[in-house]
Amino acid sequence: MLFFLITCFSFFLLSHSFSIRPLPSWVSEIRLSSSLWFWKELSFFTIYRSIKNSLFGGFWGIPSKMSFTEKTPLHKVENVEVGLEMGLLDLPELVLECILERLPPEGLCSLGGVCSSLRDRCMSDYFWKRHMKEKWGRILGRAAYREWQWHMASRKDSDTLEQGKPNGLMRLLSRFGPLSWIRSRLSNSTPQRSSVPVDSIMSWYLALETGRFWFPAQVYNRESGHVGFMLSCYDAELSYDSHTDTFQARYPPHGRRTVAIENGVSWDRLRAPPVETPPHDLHMSDCLNELHPGDHIEIQWRRNKEFPYGWWYGIVGHLESCDGNESYCRCHNSETVVLEFNQYTPGSRWRRTSINRKDHREEGNEADGFYGGIRKLCRNDEISVWKQLWPAEVLE
Ligand SMILES: *[C@@H]1O[C@H](CO)[C@@H](O)[C@H](O)[C@H]1NC(C)=O
């Protein structure tokens, strides 16, 4: 125990003298509260409140205006630091768990840098699962998960081959802007102390956060502003940029056209692929018999047969012979299904097409492109995303 104390103690001394950025304000708040109360009656609620404040207040690298450390001689701070650790680790397991559960990812990272005991706890999949789901859940699909597993496997191989390279966390953190101060702290510890297991959820989270891991997802209205992609959704590889809170998208080559890159893709233009069909494969439509006028659909479309498909939004329309009066409409019994793309002006060759309900696979030609598989949209949230993307002007 004494040895442990000394280790933590000296680690703090080191980290304190080397860290460039100030510690987050909540750390000093905890220090403040634990220094006053720890040896008498350390109250769980004190720490809980401090951490809670930090969750709702500014967190990152913003020096606390009331910073306790700045006004206190160093030796006093040291005592307080020991108090903090003793305090947290002496808490009943369940209480400590409650605290860690409420910490944001940055909090887990910084607390994990305090000592080995806290590090193991803060790396636990249990705490990271929730953060993973909250931040990335909506845009990560099975394809992204498979990609990560493949990435992990290759990382494990290369890690055993290239020993002596910077360990996992250091490499992950090397591009983790706001966490650069953690790196400076970690560089003072021994290498084993800071490596994050490659197959942990924390490792995946950090790989996403740092933009090191490119994952497959789909982008609405690709190459933003490009009129040729209005109300479509295309597959791309994405990398997150934490400085701008946006993504870089890499679209696969289109025939002779090389890879297209788009920067600054916002969160609301991304989605996890709703079906497993890869971008070059025809999706097997399973809704053809149910299509009624007014249904919202997405249909695969590609310019020519070498291009990948994108998903295009449309609605099922009425046949020319039908005036749309519900009492007489028999369109749902017809073999022909009319699809309308009302973002295009009446008369545009992109505004209407029709497919055969019985044997539709892929229809089209080199001039108008090829229409592939159809998904009927049943969920309101899926439909409303398309409505929000509706262009301000009618397209030619
Ligand atoms: C549909 O046809 C019925 C019967 O002819 C008529 O009463 C009704 O007004 C029509 N509805 C519309 C929307 O035109």
UniProtKB/TrEMBL annotation:
<protein>
    <recommendedName>
        <fullName>F-box domain-containing protein</fullName>
    </recommendedName>
</protein>
<keyword id="KW-0732">Signal</keyword>
<dbReference type="InterPro" id="IPR001810">
    <property type="entry name" value="F-box_dom"/>
</dbReference>
<feature type="domain" description="F-box">
    <location>
        <begin position="85"/>
        <end position="131"/>
    </location>
</feature>
<feature type="signal peptide">
    <location>
        <begin position="1"/>
        <end position="17"/>
    </location>
</feature>
<dbReference type="InterPro" id="IPR036047">
    <property type="entry name" value="F-box-like_dom_sf"/>
</dbReference>
<dbReference type="Pfam" id="PF12937">
    <property type="entry name" value="F-box-like"/>
</dbReference>
